[in-house]
């Protein structure tokens, strides 16, 4: 009551742009949070999978007798024990295999009373294989007489995507400069710190509860059900805290239906948890690609065309990986003003690992090529590199050949901001001049940019998100959102947005978003969409609640609702902040009256975007954003080590919502790109992964991270919440080509095949000196 | 199964005596035997630091240590860092500086950071970076982690 | 998986050695190499597991009469932070500084790193440069017997040494380097430490009026064992380090090593780094 006296007037203030702490951080920091990896259910059994460990083979016989009779083993299953049902984008992936098509193939599975017994049982399963000749590259898969990987696809050709716009031959003829290069983008993987895990539990009505790391719980049901032969409605998805996702959990992978089948057949909850080696071998990768890119421009520096021929190793099965051309072509056609575009992307089955979605989704691969071509064109033109890019930079109101409508386009501002901050043009010239001088260590600076969807991506029938919001008699808010939390921080953002609208502290907002039986539909955490889509949804729901409260308050105080506002836990006069009544009191008055007026609102936000469509001519996102990165490196020309000293980045974020979370996403996103550029590489030999551990698969560690200077450009997106755009993928997308351009500036050598490992760089420099 | 042996040590300030299989790792004992799940498994080969604990005042990877090797020693896990139901200043700093995203690596990161600052209250940013080289984080890019540790060092220097 | 039938944590050397004389044992101290090797199936347990941590007198760094003695249980962190070694043999502290991570340095013992006999064992290189010997103790006729083996003769192949199964490596010993001793260590990799060396190199010797003598050179990860570079040593012994001498040493170094291709590096790159590092370390010596 004393508060009321203290706050006679409450000034208008805003949380937007402030630094908001993640609500789940304290429990995580004290080790109290139970991740799915930590969970133990009553009566739970431990599942384990026998993986083939060979790339291509017929399975002649499987002897499970020794494994089955091991004390503590409840069940051993093989493909013979389950119906012939498939997973995946083209339903080519059985939970348990009757033929081996890649190293990770799931051949048998065990449920036992402990992890140790399950592991022992796996070793006791005797499989007789007849090895078959394999296909270990997309090129080999296309050869006449190549072994057939998937019987339904006798030519080994998997998905194909095309987009053609304008007169290519004419554009080529009208070009003064044409570049023609092949980029080979390698295999990398997510390396979530929490390894893959699922816990499945059936009830006696046949309903499956699956504890999952999935980042798309609603469509997950639709993808999982067919592999089990059950109705999607009979699946409840619970998402306990998870140790990272980054796209790795945007599909159903075989271990998940296997856990469910084991649970169904044993009548007990079954947990499958990978160890780190299993995680490396049995997780999706980033889609590798051979990108044949041609780019042209006039001598005045106007881009004339881009033609990209992309060949992708599909691996043995089809997850999201080979669909990345959907984004690759947007970059080909939209990364600067490209009047004529020719894009073909073809995936080819092989006996290699298969790719899923991964932060940056195709754009990491494509921008590695396009941003280097922009750099190469500027050099060939002998034109100021910023001037060249500005000439071709699209502006607000322009539309790309694929009909991406750039309502607010801040590419030019990103370019000039980053270039000025890093003194890019002067340094570029200085280091170019120094290249021919004596000296072991060479400095280099490189700039890259790209475009990415920043308002969702309508690749499903809906790109929307549901929100249910209720307020109790104590002015505490519960928000039930379809949006998942995988560490990215939507919990903080939704709390912040709802607080902003309802004038309550963020800690008075509880988020419920981990149970598909409670939450309304959402398409999932992907495409940099969650702050934009779920943020808009939460805001709209909060505004509905606010309107309901102010309407009631307006009646009571006898002023119009437009003259009232919610601030600091009070209903106040909008103009001077004079307190009208306490919010909790108001809510109780609304509740306890003859015709109760309780605040329980819902919203389904569908972004203003068009379905992708088969011809790929659509405004598929409600917003697009650009980013520019400048990397400064020192190359040890003797050892080939590239030391990344500084990154200057400018990104159109629309509007900063949670500044702390935004910075964290930028820094973490960049780390992925740095690993991709310099150190991370899955080394396959005849389909077998040779480095399934952190010793030899090198994710960036603290000493490898450079200083990062961030500039957030606020273009004020009309469709985004408070003007915000989606942000989380561009940092991963843009840094690698910036580093490649910097290494070129330092050494005069182009690296078309990342990663730029010390050996690769040293070898290229040595070979150059031998010429 | 292999033989078991009796093991007595001090865990987060309290004595513990129990029987353990001799081939068990300290990590497995803490997580599965003692239900202290704050200490994480992420690689099992000492390359990521998610399982970092303090033994006799120095940090080690509990995934590489045999449980029997805890005999007679003082062990602290992430659960032992907070006192009186309040976050330890290092934990609070990680929360305040936005260093926690998915958070899976953070118990190990915080244990290591706390050890570094205890060992050297005048830690430089360079020394922090080196000291945390054995702790892999896939979310943060480490900047916010270093900010969090630097703030604790700064606070100590002011105090 | 083989089963452990007996676990022992002896407190004195004699009782440990007596058990070792009686049958196959697995020794554990820090566990940093043993545990992953067991997990990956590269090694299995013997019926008896002996934890040597509690054996008295196996830890610590001392300086008896003109020598430095490092007990086998001394951790890499203790070496890194040792005032005695920082003064007397900084090359050893330098290698410790580039060893794995802080947590592993805190657990890994010098005895374990030597006995693991990895061709890429980081601590072995400076010890070879220091001309170290290892002390091997065993049980014979009711008493402890000790023999010493020069470290350069200790390794016989990857993971293999001349240590008999009944012997415990109790210490590593080297003559305290002369006042004019200069030694440098270098290992490959963009990371400061957490990296299995693709090449490591140590060079040391006495520098008098620009003349380099009693030169020892050691290479890691470029042959089946960590090894001394006899040709390189001969090319440098007694010489003033002129550019010609350095170039001759680089050529000799390439002759000393027999690297192979593996997933971490090709033979070409290892040869290349041997040349780069040899020249770099000799330049460091010159600048002294």
Task: Measure the end-to-end span of chain A.
Answer: 84 Å
- CATH fold label of the largest domain in chain C: Uridine Diphospho-n-acetylenolpyruvylglucosamine Reductase, domain 3
Determine the CATH superfamily of the domain at 409-454 and 621-770 in chain A.
Aldehyde oxidase/xanthine dehydrogenase, molybdopterin binding domain
Q: Quote the beta fraction of chain C.
A: 25-35%
> Got a strand count of chain C?
15
Biggest sheet strand order of chain A reads 3-5-1-12-9-10-11
Q: Which chain pair has the greatest contact?
A: A-B, 55 and 55 residues
What is the general shape of chain C? globular
CATH architecture of the largest domain in chain C: 2-Layer Sandwich
* Widest β-sheet, arrangement of strands of chain C: 4-5-10-6-7
What's the pLDDT, averaged over the residues of chain C? 96
What is the name of the CATH architecture of the domain at 409-454 and 621-770 in chain A? 2-Layer Sandwich
Individual helix count of chain A? 20
Oligomeric status: heterotrimer
Give the ordered list of helices and strands of chain C.
Answer: EHEHEEEHHHHHHEEEEEEEEEHEHH
Q: Roughly how much helix do the residues of chain C carry, as a percent range?
A: 25-40%
What structural class results from the helix and strand content of chain C?
alpha+beta
Features:
heterotrimer, A: 771 residues, alpha+beta, Aldehyde Oxidoreductase, domain 4, Aldehyde Oxidoreductase, domain 3, seven-stranded mixed beta sheet, 20 helices, 29% helix, C: Uridine Diphospho-n-acetylenolpyruvylglucosamine Reductase, domain 2, Enolase-like, domain 1, five-stranded antiparallel beta sheet, 11 helices, 15 strands
């Amino acid at each position: 009551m004393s508060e009321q006296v203290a706050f006679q007037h409450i000034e208008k203030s805003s949380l937007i742009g402030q630094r908001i702490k993640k609500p789940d951080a304290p429990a995580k920091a004290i080790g109290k949070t139970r991740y799915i990896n930590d969970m133990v259910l009553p009566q739970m059994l431990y599942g384990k999978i026998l993986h083939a460990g060979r790339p291509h083979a017929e399975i002649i016989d499987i002897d499970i007798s020794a494994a089955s009779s091991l004390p503590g083993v409840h069940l051993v299953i093989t493909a013979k024990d389950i119906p012939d049902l498939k997973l995946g984008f083209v339903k080519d992936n059985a939970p348990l295999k009757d033929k081996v098509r890649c190293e990770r193939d799931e051949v048998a599975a065990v449920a036992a009373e402990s992890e140790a017994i399950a592991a022992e049982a796996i070793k006791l399963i005797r499989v007789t294989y007849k090895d078959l000749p394999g296909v270990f590259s997309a090129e080999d898969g296309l050869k006449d007489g190549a072994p057939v990987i998937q019987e339904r696809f006798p030519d080994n050709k998997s998905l194909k995507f095309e987009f053609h716009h304008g007169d290519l031959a004419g554009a080529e003829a009208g070009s003064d400069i044409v570049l023609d290069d092949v980029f080979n983008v390698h295999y990398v993987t997510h390396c979530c710190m929490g390894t893959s895990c699922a816990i499945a539990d059936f009830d006696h009505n046949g309903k499956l509860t699956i504890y999952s790391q999935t980042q798309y719980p609603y469509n997950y049901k639709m993808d999982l059900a067919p592999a089990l032969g059950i109705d999607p409605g009979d699946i409840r998805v619970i998402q306990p805290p998870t140790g990272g996702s980054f796209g790795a959990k945007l599909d159903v992978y075989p271990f998940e239906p296997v856990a469910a089948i084991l649970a169904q057949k044993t009548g007990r909850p079954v947990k499958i948890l990978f160890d780190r080696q299993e995680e490396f071998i049995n997780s999706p990768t980033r889609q590798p690609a051979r990108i044949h890119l041609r780019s042209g421009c006039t001598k005045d520096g106007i881009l004339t065309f881009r033609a990209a021929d992309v060949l992708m190793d599909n691996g043995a099965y089809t997850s999201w990986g080979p669909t990345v051309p959907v984004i690759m072509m947007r970059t080909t056609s939209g990364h600067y003003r490209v009047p004529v575009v020719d894009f073909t992307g073809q995936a080819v089955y092989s006996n290699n690992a298969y790719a899923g979605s991964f932060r940056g989704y195709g754009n990491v691969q494509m921008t590695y090529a396009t941003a280097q071509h922009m750099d190469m064109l500027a050099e060939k033109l002998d034109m100021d590199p910023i001037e060249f890019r500005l000439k071709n930079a699209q502006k607000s109101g322009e539309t790309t050949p694929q009909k991406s409508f750039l309502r607010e386009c801040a590419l030019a501002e990103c370019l000039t901001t980053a270039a000025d901050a890093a003194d890019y043009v002067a340094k570029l010239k200085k280091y170019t001049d120094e290249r021919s001088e004596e000296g072991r260590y060479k400095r280099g600076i490189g700039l890259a940019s790209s475009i990415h969807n920043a308002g969702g991506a309508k690749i499903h029938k809906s790109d929307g998100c549901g929100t249910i919001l209720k307020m109790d008699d104590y002015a505490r808010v519960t928000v039930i959102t379809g949006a998942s939390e995988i560490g990215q921080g939507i919990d903080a953002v939704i709390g912040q947005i709802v607080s902003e609208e309802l004038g309550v502290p963020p800690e008075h907002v509880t988020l419920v978003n981990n149970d598909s039986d409670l939450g309304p539909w959402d398409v999932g955490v992907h495409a940099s969409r969650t702050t934009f889509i779920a943020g808009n949804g939460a805001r709209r729901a909060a505004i509905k609640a606010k309107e309901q409260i102010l309407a009631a308050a307006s009646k009571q105080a006898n002023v119009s609702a437009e003259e009232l506002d919610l601030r600091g836990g009070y209903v106040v006069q909008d103009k001077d902040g004079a307190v009208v009544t306490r919010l909790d009191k108001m809510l109780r008055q609304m509740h306890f009256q003859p015709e109760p007026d309780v605040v329980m609102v819902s919203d389904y936000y569908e972004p203003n975007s068009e379905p992708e469509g088969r011809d790929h001519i659509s405004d598929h996102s409600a917003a697009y954003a650009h980013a520019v990165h400048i990397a400064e490196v020192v190359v040890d020309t003797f050892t080939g080590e590239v030391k990344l000293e500084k990154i200057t980045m400018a990104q159109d974020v629309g509007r900063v919502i949670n500044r702390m979370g935004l910075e964290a996403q930028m820094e973490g996103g960049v780390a992925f790109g740095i690993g991709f550029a310099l150190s991370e590489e899955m080394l396959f030999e005849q389909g077998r992964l040779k480095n399934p551990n952190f010793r030899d698969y090198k994710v960036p560690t603290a000493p490898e991270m450079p200083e990062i200077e961030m500039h957030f450009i606020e273009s004020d997106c009309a469709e985004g919440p408070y003007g915000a755009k989606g942000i989380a993928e561009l940092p991963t997308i843009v840094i690698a080509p910036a580093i490649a351009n910097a290494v070129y500036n330092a050494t005069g050598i182009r690296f078309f095949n990342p990663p730029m490992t010390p050996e690769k760089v040293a070898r290229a420099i040595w070979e150059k000196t031998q010429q | 199964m292999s033989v078991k042996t009796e093991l007595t040590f001090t865990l987060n300030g309290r004595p513990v005596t129990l029987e353990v299989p001799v081939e068990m790792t300290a990590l497995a004992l803490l997580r599965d035997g003692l239900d202290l799940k704050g200490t994480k498994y992420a690689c099992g080969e000492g390359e990521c630091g998610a399982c970092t604990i303090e033994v006799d005042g120095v940090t080690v990877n509990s995934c590489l240590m045999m449980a029997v090797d805890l005999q007679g020693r003082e062990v602290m896990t992430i659960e032992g860092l907070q006192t009186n139901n309040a976050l330890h200043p290092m934990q609070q700093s990680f929360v305040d500086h936005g260093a926690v995203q998915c958070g899976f690596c953070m118990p190990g990161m915080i244990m290591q950071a706390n050890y570094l600052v205890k060992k050297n209250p005048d830690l430089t940013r360079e020394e922090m970076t080196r000291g945390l080289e054995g702790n892999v984080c896939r979310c943060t890019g480490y900047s916010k982690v270093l900010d969090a540790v630097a703030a604790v060092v700064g606070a100590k220097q002011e105090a | 998986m083989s089963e452990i039938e007996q676990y022992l944590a002896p407190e004195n050397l004699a009782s440990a050695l007596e058990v070792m004389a009686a049958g196959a044992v697995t020794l554990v101290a820090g566990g940093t190499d043993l545990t992953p090797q067991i997990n990956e199936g590269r090694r299995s347990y013997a019926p008896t597991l002996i934890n040597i941590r509690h054996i008295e007198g196996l830890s610590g760094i001392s300086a008896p009469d003109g020598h430095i003695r490092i007990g086998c249980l001394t951790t890499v962190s203790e070496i890194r932070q040792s005032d005695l070694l920082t003064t007397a043999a900084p090359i050893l502290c330098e290698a410790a500084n580039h060893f794995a991570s802080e947590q592993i340095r805190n657990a890994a013992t010098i005895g374990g790193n030597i006995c693991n006999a990895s061709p890429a064992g980081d601590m072995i290189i400076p010890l070879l440069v220091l001309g170290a010997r290892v002390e091997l103790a065993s049980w014979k006729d009711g008493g402890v017997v000790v023999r010493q083996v020069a470290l350069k003769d200790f390794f016989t192949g990857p993971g293999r040494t001349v240590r008999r199964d009944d012997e415990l490596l109790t210490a590593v010993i080297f003559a305290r380097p002369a006042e004019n001793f200069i030694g440098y260590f270098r290992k490959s990799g963009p990371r400061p430490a957490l990296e299995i060396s693709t090449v490591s190199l140590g060079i040391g010797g006495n520098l008098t009026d620009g003349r380099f003598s009693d030169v020892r050179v050691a290479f890691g990860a470029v042959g089946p064992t960590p090894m001394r570079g006899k040709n390189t040593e001969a090319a440098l012994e007694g010489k003033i380090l002129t550019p010609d001498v350095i170039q001759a040493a680089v050529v000799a170094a390439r002759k000393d090593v027999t690297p192979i291709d593996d997933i971490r590096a090709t033979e070409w790159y290892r040869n290349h780094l041997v040349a780069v590092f040899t020249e770099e370390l000799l330049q460091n010596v010159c600048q002294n």
